[in-house]
Specification:
186 residues; mainly alpha; two-stranded antiparallel ribbon; 9 helices; 47% helix
């Protein structure tokens, strides 16, 4: 599948940067050029992990992205075929953003980035039990998370989240009290 706006021989225009051509055929370079900057991957993270869908929800993220940057990134991600938007079902003034199938394909990258960041950062707010689960069951989580995102669910938020689903059916570690396995913090 060819992604939009990033052919080797074509030049692509980012409103926040100078016009650039793909620098190489390296798959890591391709991914970095497609996403363009850390803000883009944080938008994808917010959809996958926290179920955010609207401009206002993305704007409320901890990182404090500026409105103009967020607007440019949402546009860029749509142009590149990572996001799609639709009119909000109850408020026609808003758009709801969801991942395309290409965007869902970034789930393994998010899990790898979370694992690597948790290992190398001096501190993170990622729950240690989650990182352990990512390390032990990455392939299974990739499938569960991808399916959840396709269904409009997220990893952490809501009674139908991936974590809630795992807690209801899949043991991961022994509980101190019962000796049975549980998901989540002790």
């Amino acid at each position: 599948m060819q992604l939009k706006g990033i052919d080797r021989d074509e030049r692509c225009q980012d409103p926040m940067k100078h016009t650039v051509a793909r620098r190489s055929e390296c798959p890591i370079n391709f991914t970095l050029e497609l996403l363009g900057d850390p803000w883009s991957l944080l938008v994808v993270r917010d959809i996958v992990y926290f179920g955010k869908r609207t401009f206002g929800e993305f704007l409320s993220s901890t990182e404090g992205m500026a409105r103009n940057i967020l607007s440019a990134r949402l546009t860029r991600l749509q142009e590149r075929g990572i996001l799609q938007s639709a009119v909000h079902p109850t408020d026609g003034r808003k758009e709801v953003y969801t991942l395309t199938e290409t965007g869902v394909g970034l789930v393994p990258l998010l899990l790898a980035a979370a694992d690597w960041g948790a290992e190398h950062a001096p501190s993170t707010d990622a729950p240690p039990w989650w990182i352990e689960l990512v390390r032990e069951r990455r392939d299974e989580l990739t499938q569960l998370i991808s399916e959840a995102v396709r269904e409009g669910r997220s990893v952490f938020v809501g009674g139908d989240s991936v974590v809630a689903e795992l807690a209801g059916r899949t043991p991961t570690r022994p509980s101190r009290e019962s000796g049975q396995h549980t998901v989540g913090p002790e």
